[in-house]
Design brief:
It is a single chain. By secondary structure, the protein is mainly α. The protein has one domain. Helix content is about 65%, strand content about 10%. The chain contains three helices and three strands. It has a three-stranded antiparallel beta sheet, with no helix packed on it.
Amino acid sequence: MASSGGNSPGSTITMTAGLQTSGSDSGDVRQLLEQRKKRRMESNRESARRSRMRKQMHLDELAAAVTHLTSENARLSAGIVVSSRQLMAVETENSILRAQLMELSQRLESLDDIIRWVEPGSVPGPRQHHNSQEWNPRWNNHPIAAAGAFHDDIFP
């Protein structure tokens, strides 16, 4: 801001950054302001350069994380496939064992019924059949499909 002063008719007093200077000092003030402006611009450039470097480092870290997570995802997906196959195998084996259990339980019940009929003075157990006075071998002689496979596992 410039205003005319009262000291001399041709002198100028300049107010810059809170300093009051006369016309002869105005060149020094301008030079000082130019230096400050230049330092500020350099500082801003350096700050922008550091900001770009930080941004690039962050992008590099993110790219590395993407690569790592992609490989981890592939590894986990492969593990899920293996685990799923193992689960199916265990469920299949479980189904076979349940079927064998039911067949062997039925066979045991049949053998218990036979023992009750054969023992002298025994009375048939809680499962009474149509004709409880007579034993029907066809009723007790049913095929057991998985019994052979189970027997081979126990007695090679």
